[in-house]
């Protein structure tokens, strides 16, 4: 996952509409939920759900990268004996889908 929320794409109106449809508040329209101060708590819930939907959509098209890292192997006395390679989880990269011929 990106280190900060600034690395993710912004939450769009489509994400907010999707979150509103998932929550399904009774008797409150989307416009009222987003603009009326009376529904401030509902707006915060919609914003949080929209951010979650945005993050899940971003993770669906990115994959975690595994990189090898060299580490020192220590002996029983604490002195270096040799090197070992350890696979470590790194950042995310876009999933590259090959174009299939028709």
Q: What is the number of helical segments per DSSP (H or I, 4+ residues)? A: 3
The largest sheet is: 2 strands, antiparallel
E-strand count: 2
In which order are the strands of the major sheet placed? Answer: 1-2
Radius of gyration: 23 Å
Number of domains: 2
Low-confidence stretches: none
- Tell me, rounded to a whole number, the average pLDDT: 87
- N to C succession of SSEs: HHHEE
- Helical residue percent band: 25-40%
Distance between the termini: 34 Å
What percent strand?
A: 25-35%
The global form is elongated
Structural category is alpha+beta
Key features?
102 residues, alpha+beta, 2 domains
Describe it.
With 102 residues, the protein is of the alpha+beta class. It folds into two domains: 5-60; 63-94, no CATH class. It has three helices and two strands, in the order αααββ. The chain has helices at residues 13-23, 30-35, 40-60; strands at residues 62-74, 80-94. Strands 1-2 form a two-stranded antiparallel ribbon. β1 and β2 form a beta hairpin. α1 packs across α3 (40-60). It starts with 12 loop residues before the first helix and ends in an 8-residue tail after the last strand. The relative contact order is 0.16. The mean pLDDT is 87.
